[in-house]
Amino acid sequence: MLATIPNRRAIIDRKSLTLQLEALGNDGGKNAAQDQRNQALALLKAALAHGRETIRTRFEAGESALVTRQSIAYLTDQIIRLAFDFTTGRVYPLPNPTAAERLSVVAVGGYGRGEMAPFSDVDLLFLFPYKQTPWGEQVVEYLLYLFWDMGLKVGHSTRSVEDCLRLAMGDLTIRTALLEMRWIWGDQPLAQQLRTRFAAEVMAKTGPDFIEKKLGERDDRHRRMGDSRYLVEPNIKEGKGGLRDLHTLLWISRYVYGVEDLAALIDLGLLAPDEYKRYNQASEFLWTVRCHLHYLTGRPEERLTFDMQTEIARAMGYADRPGRKDVERFMKRYYLVAKEVGDLTRIFAAALEERHKKKKPLAVLKSKIRRPKTTDGFVVEGGRLDLADPALFEREPVKLLRLFHLAQEQGLDIHPDALRQVSRSLKAINAELRNNAEANRLFVEMLTSKNDPETTLRRLNEAGVFGRFVPDFGRVVAQMQHDMYHVYTVDEHTIRAIGILSRIEAGQLAEEHPLSVKVMPQVVSRRALYVAVLLHDIAKGRGGDHSILGEKVAWKLGPRFGLSDAETETVAWLVRWHLAMSATAFKRDIADPKTVVDFSKLVQSPERLRLLLVLTVADIRAVGPNVWNGWKGQLLRELYYRAEEYLSGGFSVRGREQRVAETKKQVAAQLPDWPAAERNALLKRHYETYWFSNDADTIARHARLMRVADKEKRGLTLETRVDGFRAVTEITLYAPDHPGLFARVAGAIAASGGNIVDAKIFTTTDGMALDTFFIQDMEGKAFDRSDKLAKLSTAIQRTLSGDLRPRLVLGADKPGLPSRTRVFKVAPAVLIDNTASNRHTVVEVNGRDRPGFLYDVTRGLYDLNLSIRSAHIATYGERAVDVFYVQDLTGQKIEDAARLKQIEGHLLKQLTVAEHKSGDLKSADKPGAGRPAAKATTRKDAA
Each residue of 261-307: pLDDT tens digit? Predict the structure, then answer.
């Protein structure tokens, strides 16, 4: 196993070190033993450091990870042998040992395999024949302290042969560790005795049990680690598709078949030659990444974090390409390897299960008998679909699609032998098959099936059929985007989106997405919707706007899939504008009639509006587990209803004045106990925008709050309400208005750990500010803890009184809150649009998300004497995107080119200075999670 290591002596010269250790003097003085130990320790420690540096230099110069991990194990072996000989020969010599005074040093676990990463633990078993003796205790203790002082991280156990066998029967971890035992030094026959008895008394009796428990352990580990190969920061050892999955395959093979090398499984029919080759390639890649990760971090780090992804991509020679960064190319390779590992372990595990499956109950067997044994060239065996003839795909390539179609149709698993034939027949998926009408019919039926299309598409993708049948999809397989917003690779995101769409259609998500579930049965172009979800991100990574490029792909694939001209046009339109609804809802003022008119003119029909809504929901939900929240749903629903009203003709008939009049009438009806004069005063106290932007219930509640505050002559009134469905906490503020109030409150909220996701901010005709802030915590949930709300209330009061300066609090370093956003560089950008609104200039500000970002921007707008009318706050991972509808102090749009240039320059300077000051500013654990897209309507006065 270690024969591949070149020039071992350059790593460590054991012969020379042995002579040096033997030559150590012992003058018999008081501290002679300690001096001798110190000298030995110095020699061994220096040899270990030299060997480690030599191995690292070789690795960084291009030596393979296989040689590197074996070299580290080899170096560790020699150090242990030298230390053992020194201890038993010079410190505790034993001229005439008894039968009990024997000791064997055995490597277990990964070290036992002869595989060690740069900072792996050294797992040792100190093996005795019967029970521990005083001599043995002394030797083990001396060795352990010597190892620890050298800097070796030793995990150890001290047991007899009987102990090992007894414990192994009841503990899967011990059983697995002993499976990989390797004698290092000491009494070799003793180690061999354990190996022989372990095989005969444990392994031979527990094979099926070991398989079942090991596969169950794997599944539990996957769940703990996120149950996906496509996590943005995967664990390369324990994660799904990582090294531990390859180890599981190896452990089962050794345990059940007694093989040392997986090559032996080829003769047993459990692995094909190409699968063995793929196993070794995957192992080498993952070990290469792991060695780089350990060396770069200087610790046993197994998580491929954002910062390490960039470093390792460079270390492994990846370079930027048009449309793709070096790190994205590296991570694509990683995800492809993880997918390969999943493919191999799935086929292997299924083959093992087939050979060792337990007997089924009679009722189950009878139910299997009722199934047709052969169907269209396929045979059903034990609930699995297999080929009746291994040459089926060669004769009829269309059956490659039919296999998965039939499995979906009948709810069957696919036999591992059939999956092998699929892998071997992928070359049959050529241009002729791609243009085959029957093949495309089968594919579209699987995509649009009401029988779990997500699972079927994932099967197609795992088998490699999906990417070859739809080459445009193949280009995005395992493609990731190096940011904190996109949690999954493009292919995984797409398949998840289709799964969400299917669950919406089935009514399973009615509580989370009531509107989508309601409109889905009204969708006429159902097939077009599914194809649009499939293609919406198909052109990512091509170096241009993926929506525009994807539209071209849709025009090409629609006819091939058998779609009509009308369906193809609908798909192309949906792909082109699949981001339009979210961009409008999250970044534009829906209360501005022009926003609704512009969006409705783009959509053109109620059918497209329904299609776009459902696609948008599925797309956002599939981005990641914490991206969707109730507030985003509320914004999308609000835009949908307003656009629906416009498209049905109601929007233009019921004008703004009529809406305001109806709202005033409803409010008056809700205040029957108020004197008429007081009601009339209320109606005159607000500007038109207030009446148009709030419903009657909210206005009546505000009226009661203002009435009490005015009567008690309060300087500041705060009222809190929690909205669980929308996942926000509503804070209403009533106080005398003054310039800069918005910025100050935004700063106080940020300083208290909250995030504004909406703010309706108005000024009454008599100069009072009536502001409603909708906030969430850093997890994107309602800010509802009583202690947090009390802290927030105090912070707002202290900020408005001048006792608290948010800028100082937000700029303070907060240890223990590492910011992953620091890994990413987001250049500040200011975009000004004078066409989005008839009465406002729209200013969009982009930058790296951090505490106080909104505060810095609003302070900048205040400095410019701009009046904020509406603000829309959104975060996409590490990128904050805040949009403001502004006017000058006379209530006009900013038309002067020089003034617009000044606004852009000042805000850029404000952001650049703030970013520089924050530097490595510690942020919250999930800096983007609490800043979901939102809308805010603000007062006429300056911010």
Answer: 888 888 887 788 888 898 999 999 999 999 999 999 999 999 998 88
Q: Indicate the pLDDT class of residue 744, thresholds 50, 70 and 90.
A: confident
d(CA 248, CA 592): 59
Measured distance CA(222)–CA(242) in Å, rounded: 10
- Contact in structure between 269 and 232 (CB atoms under 8 Å): no
Q: Is residue 554 a contact partner of residue 539, using CB atoms and an 8 Å limit?
A: no
Give the pLDDT confidence of 854-906 residue by residue, as tens digits. 888 888 888 888 877 777 777 776 778 888 888 888 878 999 999 999 999 99
Instruction: Report the distance separating Cα 350 and Cα 252, nearest Å.
Output: 12
Please, are residues 883 and 587 in contact by the beta-carbon 8 Å criterion? yes
DSSP state letter for 87 = I
Give the whole-angstrom CA distance, residue 14 versus residue 84: 13
- Sketch the domain layout of the chain as residue ranges: 8-204, 209-355, 366-469, 470-654, 655-714, 723-937
- Spatial CA neighbour of 471 closest among 435, 420, 419, 507: 435
Q: DSSP letters along 559-586, please?
A: HHTT--HHHHHHHHHHHHTTTHHHHHHH
Pick one of 3.40.50.300, 1.20.1440.80, 1.10.3720.10, 1.20.120.330 as the CATH number of 209-355: 1.20.120.330
At residue 181, φ and ψ (nearest 5 deg) are -60, 145
Mention the CATH class of domain 366-469.
Answer: mainly alpha
8-204 homologous superfamily: Beta Polymerase, domain 2 (3.30.460.10)
CA 106 to CA 1: how far, in whole Å?
A: 16
Q: Which of 204, 188, 215 is nearest to 254 (CA)?
A: 204
As a whole number of angstroms, the distance between CA 276 and CA 371 comes to 35
Q: Using CA atoms of 455, 457, 463, 464 in order, give the dihedral in degrees to the nearest 10.
A: -160
Torsion of CA 522, 525, 530, 531, to 10 degrees: -170
For 680, residues 6+ apart whose C-beta sits below 8 A from its C-beta are none
How would you classify the pairing of strands 384-387 and 378-381? Answer: antiparallel
Q: Cα–Cα distance between 498 and 408 in angstroms, integer?
A: 15
- Whether 209-355 and 8-204 are alike in CATH topology: the answer is no
- For the chain, the first-to-last Cα distance in angstroms comes to 72
Instruction: Decide if 87 contacts 19 (C-beta within 8 A).
Output: no
From the list 660, 597, 582, the residue with the least C-alpha distance to 935 is 582
Number of helical H runs and strand E runs in the chain? 43, 17
CATH of domain 723-937: 3.30.70.260
Higher pLDDT among residues 598 and 822, named by residue: 598
DSSP state for residue 528 in the 8-state scheme: H
pLDDT level of residue 925 (50, 70, 90 thresholds): very low
Strand order in the sheet with 374-375: 374-375, 378-381, 384-387, 413-414
How many Cα atoms sit within 13 Å of 139 on the Cβ side?
Answer: 27
Quick one: which H or E segment has residue 538? Answer: none
Mode of pairing for the β-strands spanning 384-387 and 413-414: parallel
Report the DSSP beta bridge partners of residue 872.
883
What torsion, rounded to 10 degrees, do the Cα atoms 236, 237, 239, 240 define?
Answer: 90
Eight-state DSSP code of residue 260: S
CB neighbours of residue 597 within 10 Å: 16
Q: What's the CA gap between 385 and 399, in Å, rounded? A: 12
d(CA 493, CA 537): 9
CB atoms within 10 A of CB 531: 26
pLDDT score, position 215? 84
* SS3 assignment, position 73: helix
Enclosing H/E stretch for 889: none
Q: What is the CATH number of domain 470-654?
A: 1.10.3210
41: three-class secondary structure by DSSP: helix
Cβ within 8 Å of residue 247, ≥6 positions away: 110
